[in-house]
Amino acid sequence: MNITYSIGDLTITRLGLGTMRMADRPDQRTGPTAPIWAPPTDRTELVTFLRAAVDSGVDHVDTADAYALGAGEELLAEALAPVRDRITVATKVGTSRPSPTEWVPHGRPEYLRQQIELSLRRLRTDRLDLVYLHRIDEAVPLADQLGALKQAHEEGKVRALGVSQVTADTLREVTAHVAIQAVQNSYSLGDRTFDDVVDLTAELGAAFVAFFPLAMGTVAADDPTVARIAARHGATRTQVALAWLLSRGDHVVPIPGTTSLAHLRDNLGALRLELTDTDLTDLTELSSPA
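^ thats the sequence. predicted structure below, dont judge the formating
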């Protein structure tokens, strides 16, 4: 199994780190002085964790301009400054946040260009590694949304382009307007809604970046099949679920999120887990596309 994949001129390990929950948790307090967003743990601890993650082998982290209104990008800029040359940072534009619980697609070209400039500033760089259109805005022509990203790429402000949470039909329409290097969709052993997008990205030579890769969905977390395979390999159930994802193609890149170094290192162990053909058949039969 190949453990690296190239997105444009970026080569990454095929298991990254999602960071949404590091900066984006609606605070439960109310009142005029209560913060709208609050990090789930101490900022100093998060900085220490992120640097340790890189030392443990993580070289691809994922964020978005909408995570805590840009605070997620600022956190990564601070934490990764000493190791920036060792890591690829992906971000997303195209979603606004009127409130902590609302995620609203916002694809007007001027807004996307503005958000790219803000991401450059918050991430303290003059060129973003990978930028996704976070969600497609049905109220704005697709060509206009993609055109804004393509312009940023042509201006040298973005190295690689992607789209997020798209169907196979939409992806085909996207590729008629712009060449993309990555698609980021929800996907896991228990949620195979986008099986066809996994296959299509392989045909297109694009990465399929799986978020929520450990959401078990239709597969019970304590399913005896998963437990049996894990026990036979001396692995954890989490490693088995991630190894199944990695088996779907050399272009598949899961990005599980965690703030625990022990969990992160356990996740990385999936890169060394070689499932047998029988294992893969048994796991695949546990669920089917929604």
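The longest helix spans residues 43-56.
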